[in-house]
Amino acid sequence: MALTPGRISKLEVSADDATYTQVGRLNSIDGDIGYDSADVTSFGDYAKAQYPTLSKFSGSASGRYDHVDAGQVIIMAAIDTPALLWVRAYFDGTHFRKCQCTVNVKIGAKEEDVPTFEFSFESAGGARPVAG
Amino acid sequence: MEPDVAIVSLLSRVTGLRASQSTENPFDGNLWRGPMREPEEGCPVKAVSVLSTGGLSHDRFLGTSTDLRVSTVQVRIRSENHDFSGGQELARACSDAIDCHDVAGYIDIRVREPEPNYLQRDDVNRHHWSFNVELWRTVAD
Predict the structure, then answer these.
(1) Is the reported ipTM for this assembly greater than 0.95?
(2) Which residues of B touch A28 (CB under 8 A)?
(3) Can you list the positions of beta strands (E) in A1-132?
C-alpha cells in the first residue's frame, strides 16, 4: 500500500527552478494534469478519433493568508512583477509535478474568520510539465 | 500561553478580581483556573472560574507541523448572596474585558454569546452566570 496522509502534501514555488520555497498556511491542493486533444475524425467514421496534443498542468491551493510566509511572498512578488513562476506540487509528499506557470491569487476576509488565501496556477512556460 | 491562562490574564484587569496563583483550594484570589468551587470549601463567594473546554477540530496546514487551532474556554461567575445585580455587573464586565482584546500569541479572542448566560439561583441565593470564549492561534506541534 502506498497511500499517504494528505497532511504531508505540499506546494513549492520558485522564480528560477533552482531554489524552491514551500507555500505555508495551506489546507488543500488540487491539480489538473492532462493534455489537449485534436479531433481527427473523418466524415463517415463510426467512432470519434482524437490525438493528444499540448500538455496541461494547472491547479489551485487554498489556506490562510499570511503576508510574511516566504512562499506566499514569492507568489505575490511574481504577480506584482509580473512574472511566471515555477510551481512544484507534491500530492503525496514525495513525488512531484512541476511546471512554469501563470499564477493568480484571491484573498478574502470575513469578520468571523482568519483571512483566506486561494492560489491558482496554469502551465505557461512552453515546456511540458516534469514529473519527479 | 495556554488559553485558560490568557483569559485569566485579561480578567485580572477587571475591578474586584484578583488572580489566584493556585488552581486548588486554598485560593489566594477570587479568580482561578479550573472548575467553580463551592464557598463551603473555603473559597470566596463572589468569584470567577476559567475552565478549558476543548475546542473545534484542528485546521492543519499541509506539509508542516503547525495548525490553526480554536480552543474554547468557559467562564463562570458567582455573585455574593442576594446580589443579583452585582453578579450581573461582574459577568458583563468579564465578558467586555475578554471580547476582541489582544493577547500576545493569539490571532483572535472572541466571546460567543452577546450576554452572559444566567444559569441559576442556588439554595443560598447566590446567582450564577457563564459564557464561552473562542481563542484562535497557530500552534506548532
Answers:
(1) no
(2) 62
(3) 10-14, 21-22, 26-39, 50-64, 85-90, 96-108, 116-123, 130-131
